[in-house]
Structure formats: C-alpha cells, structure tokens
Amino acid sequence: MNSTDEMKGKEIEKLRVWALDNVQLGVFLREGSEENSSYYEARDDESTYIGEYDFNTLPELEKMFDELFNLQFDRKVKKVVGVCAMRCGRDLKTSNKENLTVKDSLPEHIYVF
Amino acid sequence: MYVLGISALYHDAAAALIEDDDIIAAAQEERFTRKKHDKSIPVNAIRYCLEEAKIKVDQISAVVYYDNPILMTERFLANLQYSGKDSDDLLDFSFKSIFNEKIWIHRLLEKELGGLGIAGKLYVTEHHISHAASAFFPSPFKKAAIITMDGVGEWATTTLGYGEDNKIKIIKEINYPHSLGLLYSAFTYYCGFKVNSGDYKLMGLAPYGEPVYVQLIKDKLIDIKEDGSYRLHLEYFDYIYGRAMTNERFAELFGGPRRQPEDIITKREMDMAASVQKVLEEIMILTVRHMKRLVGNEVENLVLAGGVALNCVANGKIVKEKIFKNIWVQPAAGDAGGALGAALFYYYQYCEKKRKSDGIHDKQCGTYLGPQYEADEIEAYLNKMGYTYVKYEHLEELYERVAELIDEGKVIGLFEGRMEFGPRALGNRSIIADPRSPEMQSKLNLKIKYRESFRPFAPSVLRDKAEQYFDMECDSPYMLICADVKDELRSRFELQESMIETEGNLLPVVNKVRSVIPAVTHVDYSARVQTVSAESNSVYYGIIKAFEEKTGCGVVINTSFNVRGEPIVCTPEDAYLCFMRTEMDVLVLENMILYKEEQQELEETTDWRKLYELD
User: Whose C-alpha in B118, B195, B368, B388 is 20 to 30 A from the C-alpha of A39?
Assistant: First the structure.
C-alpha cells in the first residue's frame, strides 16, 4: 500500500470512528408522522437551486459546508471531511487525463447514489 | 450565449449545449465509449457538442453541472450517522467516488475542458432542479405543474413544483431515504435484474403477473397518504448501509432469497413486478391529483422528469385519468436529461432570459440532438471498406423499397439523421420490422437482440392513424406513454390460462397471437407507442407511410439499434458491426441499402459477445 492509500485509509478510519461515536437513528426524521395527513415537506428556500462551485483550500471548502449544510454537524467532522477531500484532491494535480476518474469498481448490486 | 450542461458520475453521463433558447446538441457518453450507462466525465459527448456548434470552450458563457456535491456530501454524512457501526460498506464503496471525484467536479471538468468558459467557474444546480428544468423549459407550455421523481438526487427523491414563463419553483418535496425510485429499484434487484439499469425490465414483466402482493407492500414496506406522499419502512432495506437494496427481512416477506440473474423467471417475480407497478401507479396518480389541487384549475399542463418518469405504463395511466389536459415528459427523463436541464436553468432562470412558448410545439427538436453523418461521408466509408450497397437517388424510391422489404418479413436496421437523446430509439437509430407477423417478436428477441423472450417490442405508428390502432387521444412522439391496442383489433387471449398451459414458460405465451399487430402487443394488450409525423421525422414517416400504402398497415415494430448489453449505435461503423453480428437482413444508411447476402463474412479478432456485459 503506498503512502497515499495509507493516508486515505486513515481518513476513512476517522470517519468510521466518527460514525460510531455519533450514531443518530433520527437523522432522517422529518416533519410529518404516521398520524399526519402528509409526508411532504414544504420547500421555500431557493438559495441552493444554483450557485457557483469553486474551492481550492480547506478553509474555502469548510466555508461551503457551513453555508450549505442544513444538518448540524460538529466542526470536527467537517474538518475530517474537508481534509479527506483536500488529500484526495492532491491526486488530481499529478494525474494524467486518462486517470482523471475513478475506475468503476462498484459491485453490481450496489445502487449508485 | 452558449451554455454547456453536464451530467456525470452517477448514471448516464451526458452533455448538452444550448445557444440562447435553442438546444444545439445533446448526447449520452455511452454512445461514444460503447460502454452502456457510462457515467464517467462525458469527454466525448462534450467534444461532439462543441464540434456541432463549431465553437471552442472559451466561447461558452457558462458550464453547469447537474448536481450539488456539497449537499450530496451532507447526505453521505447523515447516512454514516444512521449506519453507525454498520457504516463499513458505505465508506468502502463511497469514499473514493465522493472525495476523488464528485467533490472535485470543478477541477475535473476544468482539466478536461481546458477551462470553464467565459465565467471561469463551474455552476452547479440541484439535481431535482435539473430534472424540473429539463421537464418544463423545453415543453410547449407557458405554465405547468412539474413533478420529478427518481432514486435520489442530493436529498430530494420526489418534488412537486410549478413553472411559469422562465421560472420554476419547487413547492414540496420528499427526501431520502424515502424514495419511490429506490422502492422500485429494490424490486428490480430482488427479481434478479440490474439495480442501476433494469427497472424497465421489471415494468415489462409486470403484465405477466397478478398484483397479489400489493397489500403486503402497503402493510410492510411503504405507508402512502392520500396526497401521494409516502414513507418507506426502512427496516426492510439495506441501501442506507451502502449494501444491496434489500435484506433478509424483505426476503422473508416474499418467501425466500432473491432471484439470481439469468435464472428462470417464476410466477413470484411476475407477481412482484405486477404488484410494485400497481403501487407505483397508485402513488403517481395520487400525486398528480394532489398537484392539481395545489396549482388549481387554470393550470392545464403537467410536465414530468426524473427516472421514474420513464415508466411509460404509469404515464399512460396518468393520461387516462385526465387530471391534466396536457402532459409532456422529457424524453431523456433520467440523469442524462439533467445535463440539458442544468444548462436551461442557468439560461432562463439564473440569467433571467425571456422564454417563448406557443402551447403546441416543444423545443426538443424531436430529441434528435446527436451526431449525424452525411450521405457522401457514409458512402466514402462504405467504399473504403469495400462493402456492397445500393444507392437511391430519390427518397420516395427508398421508402418504397424499404416498405417492400418490411412486407417480405425482413428485419431492417435503420440509420438516418441525428441520433436520439434519451433511452428510446425513435426511427433514426432503430431496427424496424413487420408488426403483423406472429413470429417476429420471437425472431427479433432471439436472433437480433439476443435477449429474454418476455420483453415486448414497441410500435411506431403514423400520427394521423394512431387512433385506429390504439386507445389514445394524445400525441406520443417520444414513446413515453403506453396505450392499449383497440378492442376490435384484439384476439381472445387468456394470459393466466396460457401461463398454466405452459407451466410458466413465457416463450410460448409470448408467441400467442393477441391482435392484428401481435409483435407489438403486450400480453395485457398494451403498447409503448411512438406517434410519427412528417414534421418530426420526414424520412421515418415516409417509410411507414409507404408501408401503409403497400399493405394497409400504418405501424412498424421499432426497437433500438443495438444488441443486448450494447448502447444504441452512434456511427455508421457501429451500425454495420451490429448488422453483421446479428441475423438482421438489411441495413439502411441514409439513402444506401446493404443486403446481408451481399456482404463478405465479418472477420473479427475478438468474440464481440464478450465486449458487452449482459444488461
């Protein structure tokens, strides 16, 4: 395993530990319940319909997380995710065009989303 | 102003280029790479779009991507929190694609394009805004209700919205993990079809079954409200954990493990297909009714997009309900169409450009938005390769000859004009044949498409003759609405009796004659109809018209020009290879006809069957 893979392995492990320590079965709970007449959520916010997408540095990426995330995540996990992204992003600077995208290695039974 | 829209990294990568309010070009990447459902950055489709417009990247005002990676990352984190100690698969399968690709989409595209146009920065639209825009902006309507439904975008899985002039607005939504698209895909997976691309097979299987599981689905899997909103019972699904769609609890409900691909299809799968199809239709109709209450009587139009809108059987049921007077479905309703929607949203809503609509004509150009090859270019290719052909100087003579060949029972590959954008072949990259022949469905399935026998073929019918053959009052130029074959054209056929007789073997059932156009009549008498007008496609119309004049039948079979597992053909070379690899009789390339018996045997160094993964 090269140092890049090792580094990514560490980031994955940090996310795994975070998931374990911050379990929230109610994270997908929305307004509306079995007793209500509707499960629709009203949508008023139009601010995320379209926007510029650009970041180069970790602070810029963290700022995008702060502006766009609706759920409350602690600063630590945003940092972990940001660092994951920045470290993976280093590969883009050195890779050639042919290697620009990850080879499709998802097992067939996994839905892509 | 040129705007380039891009979809990639999930399903069906595509590029679409608009110039002001005209759609100049759009194409799916798979057609160029020959890799079905290719989701990689669509470099070839982008190159094609720029070539079609004869422009370079630095002339593009903006590049717009159809999904918001930050919002998607938020969903990923929420998924991790839900999964807790069961998050391993989620991390293992998602980490690379998110952190190496999706979150860096701006740099990937910048590197690939050599820049991001005049704006110098990438724009991103929300996934369902891309779908909604692809449904409303090319439609003929000044005002319309908008419904989008799919597996999931960033968060939304269903949205209800409204469009007027150059603006769209989402009013209500349902969010992940509750998803009608994922419910349907769960059944697709369980019945042994490909989870990311096999939904249409489940839809085709449904008429063979009985909806015996509907109540079980409603009791155990999904709670549906009167307004069409729904919530899944998540304990039966494993996709939240990044694993397969369903789990052992789901399997227990249906009496055992899922069907393996290529295993025999049993009554259980047929009944499951019938059941989930009925549930989906019920939800869609309730949703449309609710939408009508929201927008009021003055809004007569409904537009649809998102992968669920490819369910033409459900669309046909919605049309029959007559809740809205007019319905328009984006032909590339899945993720490929998101590229188009992203570009259009930027132009109309973000840049506040005026939008013209006459209520009758859409802006989709028949969805013939891909590359075309001029006749002299094709002729030069044929001469270079030494292939034998007959050239027709006059189109009328070509139409008559092709009609003659169809009447003789020949199977014809038709390659004309610009390639279609979206999953359906609409006469420009089609295999056509005689629908009156009782053997043609089997022949096409087994000798041309090399695919499962239960799947029906679809008809193309002259627009002005559609009501003679089908119970339909609306136009269906994009083959996205199913209609029933008219009662007086049907033959008596008892499906369940036939299934008992054949002990569940579908091939003899499929071969039973069900109407005067048996090859395009499904076992429940339904058909996925394409109406063809001279305005939308003069060549295809000319051929079908000539066939009608010769035989009295204004319908042909239309199936996509490809073998199983292969994307629809794009180039004349793709068409020739498919022609030679199958038992197709005739190939028509623009005004040139090639006969199989006059061709030299095709010599290939590799077994082409290994090139394409079976779908």
Answer: B195
Q: Strand pairing partners for B18?
A: B3, B23
Q: With an 8 Å Cβ cutoff, are B195 and A12 in contact? A: no
CA B100/CA B86 separation, integer angstroms: 23
Cβ within 8 Å of A, B 302-341: none
Q: What is the pTM of this model?
A: 0.96
Residue B127 to residue B341: CA distance in whole angstroms? 9
Q: How far is CA A54 from CA A51, A60, B109, in A?
A: 10, 8, 12
Structure confidence by residue, pLDDT tens digits, B224-237: 999 999 999 999 99
- Cβ contacts of A41 on chain B, cutoff 8 Å: 172-175
Residues 386-445 of B with CB under 8 A from A: none
pLDDT, residue A100, reads 47
- Count the alpha carbons within 13 Å of B529 in the hemisphere toward its beta carbon: 32
How large is the ipTM? 0.93
Residues 6+ apart with CB under 8 A from B180: B149, B157, B158, B230, B280, B283, B284, B308
In DSSP terms, which residues pair with B172 in a beta bridge? A42, B160
Task: Write B355-358 long-range contacts (CB < 8 A, 24+).
Answer: B355/B21, B355/B137, B355/B165, B355/B166, B356/B21, B357/B139, B357/B140, B357/B141, B357/B142, B357/B165, B358/B140
